[in-house]
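Notes continue from the previous slide.

Worked example: a multi-chain complex. Inputs as given:
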Amino acid sequence: MPDEAATLDDGEVLHAPLTLEYPFRRTTGPVIGAFFTALREGRFVGIRDRSGRVLCPPVEYDPASGAPLTEIVPVGSEGEVVTWSWNERVREGQPFDRPFAWALIRLDGADTPILHAVDAPHDAMAAGLRVRARFADERIGALEDLTCFEPVA
Amino acid sequence: MTEPAPIELPEGLWSQPAVDTSAVPELADVEQVQLVRTPASLTYDFTPGVATTRFLKAIKEKRLVGERCPETDKVYIPPRGVSPVSGLPTTEQVELGTDGTVVSFCIVNLDFTGNAQEIPYVSALILVDGSDIPIYGLVREIPYDQVRPGLRVGPVWVDDAELTTSFENIRWWAPNGEPDVPTEQLADYV
């Protein structure tokens, strides 16, 4: 506003941090609940769809027919990078405070990939890279139980 | 963020069929996850703008200042720099009194999460002397069932050492002992 009202004697307009926060909780349902229960136990599960494929992370309904899915199957904690993207500008709340890779990782025994971070330098990232899950030491039954993936040495 | 209270989930809440985990023996005898926390938070660098900055700097000195609409002569507090009625910039700062009059109020009987107030308490709209729009404030030092429109009140400030550029400098409002304002004089402000 270019008039005299838009000035202050000492020239300084105040500002302060303001955090708007909602403490949501949501119910998981039986399928996602089984996935998080498995994460808490330090392992992965998927679900078998009507065509016999194993989907991990599991979904509640068959992608083709929409029929409910119920057959939980074990999936390995190792897998391979299907594709990846380098995250150069890291934001608060992301898995690392330094640049890192997001990757789609197909776990052993699964037919679909899961998206997560990989703790590896840029020049180590490649499609086909073998990785394994690193779990949090204290697990609560939530996605945070999965810290990241790391290359299999 | 404080941990919210546990929730008892009713049987039959989920419309999806139960899953078969017999292929994963590790899931057989452990507690099933039913809830996850998904907090959502946005952090801003908030600036109140020039006019409200003036107000906040004044309230640090235990003064209340409003700004006047050049067309309607109404005085707004806290000022936003623009008259909400005419849309014109408010160019005149107005030093207000610090006392005011209750024009409307609410007796709060619900304990909101994170609220340390003892219930019931009174949240009121208070017309500060010299202004034309009421502001929110708590009314205390009087039984809640004796608060009424027209009650004269004054601010109870935090200790001088705690004064900041914040509306929280006013802890609450308390009766100032003056006679009530006749409610018909408040008709334009309710």
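Summary box: The two ends of chain B are 36 Å apart (CA to CA). The mean pLDDT of chain B is 90.
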